[in-house]
Amino acid sequence: MLLLINAILTLWVSCANGQEVKPCDFPEIQHGDLYYKSLRRLYFPAAAGQSYSYYCDQNFVTPSGSYWDYIHCTQDGWSPTVPCLRTCSKSDIEIENGFISESSSIYILNKEIQYKCKPGYATADGNSSGSITCLQNGWSAQPICIKFCDMPVFENSRAKSNGVRFKLHDTLDYECYNGYEISYGNTTGSIVCSEDGWSHFPTCYNSSEKCGPPPPISNGGTTSFLLKVYVPQSRVEYQCQSYYELQGSNYVTCSNGEWSEPPRCIHPCIITEENMNKNNIKLKGRSDRKYYAKTGDTIEFMCKLGYNANTSILSFQAVCREGIVEYPRCE
């Protein structure tokens, strides 16, 4: 009986106003289906104006962006013509050294989104931003942000390239102006674009501003092997021998062909058993036969058993002053 009524309604609607309207056959929904499909199949073909609820499979949505909606029978057939559209998820995008500023997490088929690279990085074609599109099989491509280096600032030199941006591991050659050099008489050099930027700044120095080996110091020396020539602004570090105290800066700098003032190595005070026996004293709280103290250190003494102080109490707290210490005396 229901089938007969549906057939009559379909025929009536199809012939309304003397115009024949083709009914809609059962819809074949790719990546989705009608709700209650088995029950509703009995009501087809359907007359124009009829609507049915349907759903989309995972990773697909309706044109309105929902996971379900209504499909409508019209005189031109089913609407929407593509009920379920492919979606792409932001979580499927792997972007290193870049970011997507849009807040949405799901994008429908053919949707294009923009991404931006972090400072110091660019797309494969050298731009600061790019785009990818949601296609039937997923994103058109994974966004790529590649490390790049801008043309550096040159000092007394010039680049041997007309490039503007350089990719990771690219090498840039440069040459010094006349009368300038890098080191050891070289007038050309190269720098490499690395993850941290250029390997070094291309700098050429006036040949007359170089320095020879740094000056030697007593009871100390440099921490590195000496070179015959040092370029301006070179730094060399000093250190003292054991028990000697370094006074001044650890470093000297080459400037205008001369080194800055080197440090001094101050003599330690050597407390010997011989000197303590002469004064009938010993170290307080220590049993050392020989003791080294740096300048400024306080050395505490005390009388040996059976002897009494012959100098002031303060003298038993002697201060080392550049290798010299005044011993207290006991009688």
TrEMBL record:
Pfam family, one: Sushi
Entry-linked PROSITE patterns: SUSHI (PS50923)
Disulfides per UniProt: C211-C254
Leader sequence residues: 1-18
Domain of life: Eukaryota
Keyword vocabulary terms for this entry: Disulfide bond, Glycoprotein, Repeat, Secreted, Signal, Sushi
Compartment(s): Secreted
GO cellular component: extracellular region
Residue ranges occupied by any Sushi domain in the UniProt entry: 86-147, 209-267
Protein name: Complement factor H related 4
Gene: CFH
